Amino acid sequence: MTETVSQTHPLVTLSLITTPLSEQEINLALGIQFSSADFSLAQGNVKFGLTGSTLQLQLQEARFTEFSEQINHQLPIEKSPTVDAPSWKIALPAGIDILKTNALENIELGKIATSSENWSIEATLTVEKSDLQITEIEGLWRHDIHPNQQAILHRKIALFLRETQLSSPLISLKVNSPSTSENTPQPSEKQISSLLKTIEQIKTFNNDHFLELCEIAALNPKLDFAGANLRGTTLRGLDLNGVNWSRVNLRGADLTDIDLSEANLQGAKLSGADLSGAYLSNANFKNTDFHRSSLALANLSGANLQGANLQEANLSQTNLNHCQLEGAKFD
To answer: Any idea which UniProt keywords this protein has (predicted)?
Structure first.
């Protein structure tokens, strides 16, 4: 007899569907629906959603014998499961809005062999810093503030929401075992007051220097911007050696003479960005989008450019010595 267990969060509804195939074999399927959510803040409103998440299964007295590829045709899967680590990393490409889907039902995950009557499956859905995105903010500041200030404000609020409203794991389901549900956490008045104070400090700060704004917002420039929206920002000449900015959106940003050596920008969007004279040696740009960007005089020696899109990019006097270029797209 088919059994379905479900749990709902304002951002996502998750279901697991088990169907017996024999006494010791079951078919496991997934139901999922992603949505956007709203958060009222002072006199304003914040709209947000997920750009990714990780689905992980823990099996007791059971093991996968076969994985289905069906989920890869329904969701943007960045990392697929193994028998020892049955987890799926869902991740939209950088620069795309958020995950919003109609209800996806009966997505086959695979077949599972059970070794006793006491088998169980626990599914958790977790959200990392890079998986949460602000889509719209109304009533909290003027729309003509500098892109650097806006980017910092969006990131500060996104991480505030992850810390105060998104439990870890976001969802936890159990099949063939007692399951508990948790209420969505809410921020305290003290936390909201502190956030509003920080927003006011950033809005009224007398310059738009990115690292100084990070300091005001108590954001770590090396670790807090993976998956962030930094479109159109001005970061020229900054030392950002070794940052983890995977899946960051830097479309149209001014990155002239920046130091991103040893940095991780895998899957980032850099289309239309100006990286003239940038120091990018030994950086990870796997599957990064450089379409119509300028890399004139940039030093990319030793960088990983596997699968990168370099179509229509300005590569005048660019140093590409010892780069990994497998699958990279040029004109």
So the answer is: Repeat
Cis peptide leading into residue 169 (ω within 30°) = yes
Cα(50)–Cα(73) distance, rounded to whole angstroms?
A: 19
User: What pLDDT score does 167 carry?
Assistant: 86
* Range list of β-strands (E), 171-266: 171-175
φ, ψ of residue 118 in degrees (nearest 5): -95, 20
pLDDT number for residue 183: 64
What does the pLDDT look like over 29-59, one tens digit per residue? 999 999 999 999 999 999 999 999 999 999 9
Helix (H) or strand (E) holding 213: helix 210-217
Q: How many CB atoms lie within 10 A of CB 231?
A: 19
Q: What residue spans in the chain does CATH classification 2.60.40 cover? A: 3-137+166-175
Separation of alpha carbons 1 and 6, rounded Å: 17
Taking the alpha carbons of 215, 219, 225, 226 in that order, is the dihedral positive or negative? positive
Listed in sequence order, the residues at least 6 apart from 255 whose beta carbon sits closer than 8 Å to its beta carbon are 235, 236, 270, 273, 274, 275, 278
Q: Quick one: DSSP state of residue 66?
A: E
Residue recorded with tokens 């998986």: 131
Token pair listed for 121: 């499956």
* Contact between 264 and 286 (Cβ < 8 Å): no
CATH of span 230-331: 2.160.20.80
The DSSP element (H or E) to which 84 belongs, if any, is: none
Structure tokens at 25: 């074999």
Note the CATH architecture for domain 3-137+166-175: Sandwich (2.60)
Q: What are phi and psi of 219, to 5 degrees?
A: -105, 140
pTM of the model: 0.92
Say how far apart CA 268 and CA 244 lie, in whole Å.
11
CATH 2.160.20.80 positions along the chain are 230-331
